[in-house]
Amino acid sequence: MMRSKFWQGLMWGGILGTVVGAIIGPAARPQKKPLVERSTDAIRCTTRNLMREARLARKRLIKKMD
């Protein structure tokens, strides 16, 4: 009798622990930031910065050629 209650408790504890872990686990994990921001303002700003860098690089190359 004692032995069967032990195994029964062990099984219920395992099931309950699995359910609680499945619910709490994802909630406790920190949210990851997206690798690249996809908003139009972010894309516009990135494009503007790339164009500025290209313009400066072109000016440096022209200066070196002269």
Automatic annotation (TrEMBL):
Native source species? Lucifera butyrica
Q: Does the keyword Transmembrane helix apply?
A: yes
What's the name of the protein?
YtxH domain-containing protein
Q: Transmembrane stretches, by residue range? A: 6-28
Q: Does the record carry Membrane as a key word?
A: yes
Q: List keywords of the entry alphabetically.
A: Membrane, Transmembrane, Transmembrane helix
Lineage per the UniProt record: Bacteria, Bacillati, Bacillota, Negativicutes, Veillonellales
- What highest taxon heads this organism's lineage? Bacteria
